[in-house]
């Protein structure tokens, strides 16, 4: 079921993405995230750059990074190493705020849209809540940031970076999105059963979505090359992440509601079979 369901849900998510209601959902999350990050970059970026500059000077960071960049043939980036590190450290926080804004402003509408359009008779058991969603997102992010920081040096090795980063982002995306995708329709037991049964497929959705997010991530980091255009490149990167997360939310909702529909059909068959056995 997994490969067929993955392909079908991907196609439905792609078609839903271009519906005017889904396109309009990018506005409020983008506005909230953009305002938040305008304040962070305006008041906090220089302080973070100064802190990293002092740390590099104290612990010979410039010499070490110079050798690394020279080894991989990117010595020209040495001049941008401090702002690059600053934006790299801020990248997970930017992604998290984009996810939270999608959770708060878009996921309920995405779930209603997909549920009403594709699964109108699927019972809604309301097994999730806004508080549960925020707690699930924040706790998942804490785990993610610890692993991300521990594996950060490995990202300087291109083959490992191409494998490790998408898997990490895939795990985080699946952990955050699956709760919201099933919050309205499934109860807690059904959600846990679907996660257990379809975890590889859910991580695959998150990983593919993480690969889609590579472009806005590179744009975010590329803003350090020209600080005059940084507000525009950062804003465009945030908007692209919002678009990616709306599509990701659609993909998760389509897949998980299909899985929930199949699960309830199986449970109905089991109940019917048990009733037949009981009659005998």
Structure overview:
Helices cover 82% and strands 0% of the residues. It has 280 residues and is an all-alpha fold.
**Series of H and E elements:** HHHHHHHHHHH
What's the average pLDDT? Answer: 79
Q: Give unreliable regions as ranges.
A: 271-280
Proportion in helices: over 70%
Seen as an oligomer or otherwise, the chain set is single chain
Q: Rough shape? A: elongated
What is the number of strand segments?
Answer: 0
Whole-number radius of gyration? 22 Å
Sheet having the most strands: none
Proportion of β residues? under 5%
- Alpha-carbon distance between the termini? 33 Å
SS-derived structural category: mainly alpha
Task: Output the number of helix runs.
Answer: 11
Ordered list of secondary-structure elements with their pairings:
Layout: H1 2-17, H2 20-24, H3 27-58, H4 61-71, H5 81-105, H6 107-118, H7 130-150, H8 158-182, H9 188-212, H10 214-222, H11 230-279
Helix pairs in contact: 1-11, 3-5, 3-11, 5-7, 5-10, 5-11, 6-11, 7-8, 8-9, 8-11, 9-11, 10-11
């Amino acid at each position: 079921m997994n490969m067929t369901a993955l392909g079908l849900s991907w196609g439905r998510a792609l078609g839903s993405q271009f519906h005017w209601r889904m396109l309009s959902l990018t506005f409020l999350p983008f506005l909230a995230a953009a305002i938040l990050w305008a304040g962070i970059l305006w008041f906090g970026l220089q302080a973070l750059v100064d802190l990293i500059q002092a740390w590099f000077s104290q612990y010979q960071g410039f010499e070490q990074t110079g050798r690394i960049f020279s080894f991989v043939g990117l010595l020209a980036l040495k001049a941008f190493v401090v702002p690059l590190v600053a934006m790299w450290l801020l990248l997970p926080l930017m992604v998290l705020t984009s996810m939270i804004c999608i959770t708060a402003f878009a996921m309920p509408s995405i779930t209603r849209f997909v549920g009403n359009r594709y699964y109108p008779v699927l019972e809604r058991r309301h097994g999730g809540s806004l508080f549960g969603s925020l707690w699930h997102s924040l706790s998942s992010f804490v785990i993610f940031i610890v692993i991300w920081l521990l594996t950060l040096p490995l990202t300087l090795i291109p083959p490992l970076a191409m494998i490790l980063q998408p898997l990490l982002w895939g795990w985080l995306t699946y952990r955050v999105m699956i709760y919201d995708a099933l919050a309205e329709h499934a109860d807690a037991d059904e959600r846990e059963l679907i996660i257990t049964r379809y975890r590889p497929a859910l991580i695959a959705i998150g990983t593919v979505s993480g690969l889609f997010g590579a472009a806005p991530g590179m744009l975010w980091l590329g803003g350090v090359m020209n600080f005059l255009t940084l507000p525009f490149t950062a804003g465009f990167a945030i908007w692209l992440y919002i678009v990616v997360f709306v599509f990701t939310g659609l993909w998760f909702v389509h897949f998980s509601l299909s899985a929930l529909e199949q699960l309830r059909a199986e449970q109905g068959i089991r109940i019917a079979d048990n009733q037949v056995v009981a009659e005998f």
